Please model this.
Amino acid sequence: MTRYIIRRLLQAIPLLFVISILLFVLMRTASDPIATMGGRRVPRADERERLSRQLGLDKPLYLQYVYWLVGNDWAKVDLDGDGVAETPGQQRGVVRGEFGKSMVSRGRQAWDIIWERVPNTLILMIPAEIIIILFSLAVGVFSALRQYSLADNVITAISFIGYSMPIFFVALVSMYIFAVQFKQWGLPALPTVGMFDPKVGKTPTQVALHMVLPIFSIAFISIAGYSRYVRSQMLETMHQDYVRTARAKGLSERVVIFGHSLKNASLPLVTIIGLDIPLLLAGAVVTETIFAWPGMGRLFIDHVSRGDTPVVMGILMLVSVSVILFQLLTDITYAWLDPRIRYE
Amino acid sequence: METIVEEAVATLPEQPTTKALSLRQMVWRRFRRHKMAMAGVVMLILLVLYSFGGSLVFTEEYANYTDTSIRLQPPSREHPFGTDTVGRDILARTIYGGQISLLIGLSAAAIEVVAGVIIGALAGYYGGLLDGISMRFTEAMFTIPQLFLLLVMSKYFSNKMPDVQVLGRTFSGSVIVIVAIIGLTSWMYLARIVRANFLSLKEREFILAANTIGVRNVPIIFRHILPNTMAPIIVAATLGVANAILAEAYISFLGLGVRPPTATWGNMLEGAYNYVESAPWLWIFPGLLILLTVLSINFLGDGLRDALDPTTVT
Model:
């Protein structure tokens, strides 16, 4: 098992390498960070030349990538534009833990900017994921036990609709119902924008209140999808021989359902959820934009539109690494839960 | 002797009169019984009628006509769906936006299928180095969530594409960009399925037979193996249309998609979160149309999956 993990981790290195080349080339050829640097004013030609020299954007693309990857403190750069490279480079490169300086927030390390936002995204994502797992198991088991009843049909209809909803539509509708309509009906309305009310300050209650609607929007769609899956898995395991045996042994219905049926039904769910967790980050881009939540997703949107390669690459590499790690983690968990699976 | 045979024939049970069904008839029969799938088809036909038939009622100039004196008007007799932030009629825009959204969905799915099938087929059939390289590339593309790729790529050509004239109508060049990038970021799943099917099918006897009689590689791939792996391709293509419509909506919603004046259901929602309270009609109608379309395509895809899956022969 240890050898398997080590091999998988080693395989991830070339994969990350390919991903980084792909994204770096796309990012650097697609965007012009200098265009937005002067605010609304378009930079003059000489300013453009000076800025691109200082930011190292005048170098050929492959060299920019090499500098990004391993840094440029071993090379000399020409900062004053006299054609002589005399100043030693300052970048340390990704492999030595530096993603370079942000081009939008000048002078700040991209990694520091990203790291500031990660906790904000995580306090949305972790509770959302817990709610998703608990509710989809509960809803799925509930409808499987009452197959084709009225409640099951209603849940099926809602989950089909939820599954087809774009996340922003869920967000807009929930904002409309829980914030706008609740206010009109005189009920306590939920806040829709930001992490806390600036008048009250960043107290835990405020943050918790502001988390309700974003988490609801994120969770709703996933619960709709997963609960269908749990339901069909449950229906399948409930007719297996080992469940009949458990019943024949005289076990209580509760033990049969939760101890024997659900335990086996939830196995494949591990795979699906494990592979989907990093995808929640993509959903976070939209959710954080709508609810003005200062997380990583909104940071990505703000910086991708201004061509800030170091920050955007940092976020994308972070996401890619987490995708790969979760894939590995999923495989390990699965092997641990299902003794029939053995990795060589 | 002959009479015995005749007698024996006469005592045989009557031959069944029902004809054997062809595969296509069997699939159709199973599909027709799938109530949700049929409902999806009907809804889709209605949506197509709405967005293409509607252009007989409203002209495109009307859909793009701005009049800021009537901005943000609630639904009324004159403007049944209200007006948007610059006074355009939302009903007319959902009609023209629907055309673009549906076309984006279909053409992006077409690109997805072509790319996925070609890459999957070549990798699976030839194997070796080609397989190694293309599968590493597929894995790399698969690792980055699609929305991130789309947002990075939507910068690639945006604002550089000139407007295009098709059938006397002007489309924002960004439509083509969006179609291309959605298609090029969604083929990975299909490529993997096709590759897996090719890997197992190419070892079968009928391929060996085709090889023996000297059929060339290209006909083997397209005429012998591909038809046998059509079922997952059809299902993936159907669901691909829904995903492409959603993807367009996401990037347009975030302001990096199709540029105005060309309307799509997605870009009608751009900035709508600023009007949650003051003008809900801005986002309710295009949002509902996206929801209905995706829902009916998902129903259709589900029905196709059940109908095409040979393990559920009825």
In short: The longest strand of chain B covers residues 164-166. Chain B is about 65% helix and 0% strand. The interface with chain A takes residues 136-137, 139-141, 143-148, 151-153, 155-156, 242, 246, 249-250, 253-256, 269, 272-273, 276-277, 280, 283, 287, 290-291, 294-295, 298-299 of chain B (CB under 8 Å).
